[in-house]
Amino acid sequence: MIRVLVVDDDALALELHSAYVARVPGFEVAGQAAGARAALTALSEPDRRIDLVLLDMTMPDGTGLDVARRARAMGSRVDIIAVTAVRDAETVRAAVSIGVVQYLIKPFAFGAFRERLEAYRAYVEGLDRAAGEATQSEVDALLGSLRTVTSPALPKGLSDATLQAVAERVRTAAGAVSSTEVGESEGMSRVTARRYLEHLADVGRVRREPRYGGQGRPEITYAWVRG
After folding, report:
1. CB count, 10 Å around CB of 26?
2. pLDDT single digits (tens) 146-186
3. Partners of 102 in the β-ladder
4. pLDDT, mean of residues 122-149
5. pLDDT of amino acid 83
6. pLDDT band at 197, cuts 50/70/90?
7. Average model confidence (pLDDT) for the chain?
8. What does the buried/exposed string (b/e) look like for 152-183 if buried means 16 or more CB atoms within 10 Å of the residue's CB?
């Protein structure tokens, strides 16, 4: 079994990603850490075997890059997959330079998560099979196993560009927003906006919140899940 440390300062994301790990054959959760210091403490425990870290990049007590650098300075050879909403080129470049083997951008569905872990498992199994000096084709196959990942299709009728626009609208809102508000600001119908918002809720990037006002059923609104 590949033992995984899940690191994220957002409690919902921490539980969601841990549950995702448990659903992928060959992996088990070795621990959870809600911040940079907790992650480094877990990695420094001599009696705890950790093979892979799912590492958030933004935490109140330090960045994922800080954790990765400190881990390498401690002599840790643990593999790291970045799981983060941070997507600027400088951070990605820095992550690659310190040995991050995969970079998964939030929000994502379970299918995308599973593909990254399955690719990593193929990489580990290839290393285990290799004995002595590897041939060029073996090296190519090992490295290629980490990169032959395709993003799963969105639910029918949803586009990635519109999903990102809706996600950004919710992320930058002062509070929770309704499907009507998102639809009006993004130039789409309330029904269409709700489909995108519900998808974001299903993958754990927004949470549903009731908005009470007047008589009748409360209106469902959506708030960004930080982390």
Report:
1. 12
2. 665 545 557 788 887 888 889 889 988 989 999 999 999 99
3. 81
4. 66
5. 94
6. very high
7. 87
8. eeeeeeeeeebbebbbebbbebeebbbbebbb
Given a cut of 80, is residue 208 above it in pLDDT? yes
Q: Which residues contact 29 (CB under 8 A, 6 or more apart)?
A: 3, 4, 6, 18, 21, 22
* Tokens (6 digits) for 15: 């539980």
Q: Which pLDDT value is given to residue 26?
A: 94
Q: Locate 39 and state its tokens.
A: 């992650």
Would you say residue 87 has pLDDT above 70? yes
* Residue 219 DSSP SS3: strand
State the Cα–Cα distance between residues 188 and 105, nearest whole angstrom: 25
- Report the distance separating Cα 140 and Cα 154, nearest Å: 30
- Tally the C-alpha atoms within 13 A of residue 116's C-alpha that lie toward its C-beta: 23
Q: What is the DSSP letter of 63?
A: E
Are 9 and 227 in contact, with CB atoms under 8 Å apart? yes
Distance in angstroms (rounded) separating the CA atoms of residues 82 and 101: 8
Mean pLDDT of 55-78: 94
Q: Which amino acid would we find at residue 123?
A: Y
- Distance separating alpha carbons of residues 26 and 157, to the nearest angstrom: 33
b/e map 108-147, b = 16+ CB within 10 Å? bbbebbbbbbbbbbbbbebeeeeeeeeeeeeeebbeebbe
**Residue 126 to residue 145: CA distance in whole angstroms:** 9
